[in-house]
Amino acid sequence: MTGPAVDVHAHLLLPEVDALVAGQPGLAHAKALDARRNGPQALSVSGPMVAARIPLLTDPAARLAAMDTQGVDVQLVSPSPSHYHYWADELTARQIWAAAHTATAAHCATAPDRLRGLGLVPLQHPHLAVEALDHALAAGLLGVELSSHAPGVELSDPALEPFWARAAETGAVLFLHPFGCTLDERLDRWYLSNTVGQPTENAVALSHLIFSGVLDRHPALKILAAHGGGYLPTHIGRSDHAWRARPDARGCAHAPSSYLRRLYFDSLVHDPCVLRELVRAAGADRVLLGSDFPFDMGTEDPLAALAAADLPPADHAAVRGANAAALLGL
């Protein structure tokens, strides 16, 4: 197999950011909301799970050894979504992104041929988003990670227009990775907060980007959606029908399904049939290998998960690494 295998969905824990926010009232409120949304059983499992993976999340040597075992040549490393801290005021937000960018760049600098990084952007303060993006790029990162929404801010918010414009201008990679689902207590058992909540948030966020015309106004955007884009790519026919049948669904210039080929998606869908459908719907050149390293809702063997989809050889090679190499400029 020629070319590097590139995993675009891998995470990093940042003790520097944790130290910055420790003891702040906003953090306590956010943790209480997280506990309410996930439920006590999920928290009792997640705590030990994360603790057991601290070396993989913080130690570059442990990360590289695990990549060698997986057969992954390059990772695109993004901060754990627990570091978004969208409750933070402007001063704290600036401190968070500065610390996150410095620490992520340092982590990746230990193996610059194998690790590339993303930063953070404060969606709760849209007027600071361009500043945060520019800071990430200046630190040597390839772009930023963002959630599906922030309190009071959807991705269709006009206040984010300068951010989308700057991202398109610079060619920055925007990794859309939800954290928390606003369905709240309806999903507080059986880990529904993640298994149902995350793909729901992906679908809602992408629909805001499509229907609001963000992708019409900024066609050069490089948006990479985690979790295969959630429910949207495999249920896009319903969006197309609404766009054709209802004038109030005509916010975008073209049928919603056409925008799937302007987006990028990771391969983390946990089902070879769904992965094949994602490739069909979005195009083989728009799907990239993703593992959610090293969390338990990811896959420990992303290359085996890709092989199980039994894609044509050219499509397999594209998803394995060729698409990511082109997107990331490897």
UniProtKB/TrEMBL annotation:
SUPFAM superfamilies associated with the record: Metallo-dependent hydrolases
Keywords: Lyase
Domain Amidohydrolase-related residue range list: 6-330
GO molecular function: carboxy-lyase activity; hydrolase activity
Superkingdom assignment: Bacteria
GO cellular component: cytoplasm
UniProt GO BP: secondary metabolic process
InterPro entries reported for this sequence: ACMSD, Amidohydro-rel, Metal_Hydrolase
Protein name: Aminocarboxymuconate-semialdehyde decarboxylase
